[in-house]
Design goal:
elongated; 79% helix; mainly alpha
Protein backbone atom coordinates (compact mmCIF):
# COMPACT_ATOMS: atom_id res chain seq x y z
CA UNK A 1 0.00 0.00 0.00
CA UNK A 2 1.51 3.26 -1.03
CA UNK A 3 -0.82 5.99 0.15
CA UNK A 4 1.57 8.73 -0.92
CA UNK A 5 1.15 7.93 -4.61
CA UNK A 6 -2.61 8.27 -4.27
CA UNK A 7 -2.20 11.82 -2.97
CA UNK A 8 -0.29 13.39 -5.86
CA UNK A 9 -0.64 17.14 -6.21
CA UNK A 10 -1.16 17.66 -2.49
CA UNK A 11 1.37 19.18 -0.11
CA UNK A 12 3.68 16.52 1.36
CA UNK A 13 2.75 17.37 4.96
CA UNK A 14 -0.97 17.03 4.23
CA UNK A 15 -0.35 13.82 2.31
CA UNK A 16 1.64 12.31 5.17
CA UNK A 17 -0.97 13.31 7.73
CA UNK A 18 -3.69 11.69 5.65
CA UNK A 19 -1.60 8.55 5.17
CA UNK A 20 -0.87 8.22 8.88
CA UNK A 21 -4.51 8.76 9.78
CA UNK A 22 -5.58 6.17 7.22
CA UNK A 23 -3.14 3.59 8.54
CA UNK A 24 -4.12 4.19 12.18
CA UNK A 25 -7.83 4.05 11.42
CA UNK A 26 -7.39 0.89 9.32
CA UNK A 27 -5.55 -0.82 12.18
CA UNK A 28 -8.20 0.30 14.67
CA UNK A 29 -11.08 -0.94 12.51
CA UNK A 30 -9.30 -4.23 11.88
CA UNK A 31 -8.67 -4.82 15.58
CA UNK A 32 -12.29 -3.97 16.44
CA UNK A 33 -13.59 -6.33 13.76
CA UNK A 34 -11.11 -9.12 14.42
CA UNK A 35 -9.62 -9.07 17.91
CA UNK A 36 -6.25 -10.78 18.21
CA UNK A 37 -7.67 -14.19 19.17
CA UNK A 38 -10.13 -14.20 16.25
CA UNK A 39 -7.45 -13.11 13.82
CA UNK A 40 -5.18 -15.93 14.96
CA UNK A 41 -8.00 -18.48 14.58
CA UNK A 42 -8.70 -17.30 11.03
CA UNK A 43 -5.00 -17.60 10.14
CA UNK A 44 -5.00 -21.05 11.71
CA UNK A 45 -7.97 -22.05 9.53
CA UNK A 46 -6.22 -20.77 6.42
CA UNK A 47 -3.26 -23.03 7.13
CA UNK A 48 -5.24 -26.05 8.30
CA UNK A 49 -5.30 -29.00 5.91
CA UNK A 50 -8.35 -30.42 7.68
CA UNK A 51 -10.27 -27.19 7.12
CA UNK A 52 -9.33 -27.29 3.44
CA UNK A 53 -10.73 -30.82 3.15
CA UNK A 54 -14.19 -29.86 4.39
CA UNK A 55 -14.57 -26.19 3.51
CA UNK A 56 -13.75 -23.90 0.65
CA UNK A 57 -10.54 -22.18 1.75
CA UNK A 58 -10.49 -20.09 -1.43
CA UNK A 59 -13.79 -18.56 -0.37
CA UNK A 60 -12.34 -17.72 3.06
CA UNK A 61 -9.34 -16.06 1.40
CA UNK A 62 -11.64 -14.15 -0.95
CA UNK A 63 -13.72 -12.83 1.95
CA UNK A 64 -10.63 -11.82 3.91
CA UNK A 65 -9.19 -9.94 0.93
CA UNK A 66 -12.56 -8.27 0.34
CA UNK A 67 -12.77 -7.33 4.03
CA UNK A 68 -9.28 -5.79 3.96
CA UNK A 69 -10.11 -3.79 0.83
CA UNK A 70 -13.34 -2.50 2.34
CA UNK A 71 -11.61 -1.59 5.61
CA UNK A 72 -8.97 0.35 3.66
CA UNK A 73 -11.63 2.23 1.69
CA UNK A 74 -13.59 3.00 4.85
CA UNK A 75 -10.48 4.15 6.69
CA UNK A 76 -9.67 6.60 3.87
CA UNK A 77 -13.17 8.05 4.08
CA UNK A 78 -12.94 8.43 7.85
CA UNK A 79 -9.43 9.91 7.62
CA UNK A 80 -10.75 12.68 5.38
CA UNK A 81 -13.26 13.70 8.03
CA UNK A 82 -10.88 13.56 11.00
Amino acid sequence: MNFLLENEGIEPKTSLEFSYKTILIKNLLSKISFPYYSEMKIKELQESEMYKEFFDSEKLNFHLENFNKNILDLSKIIAIGV
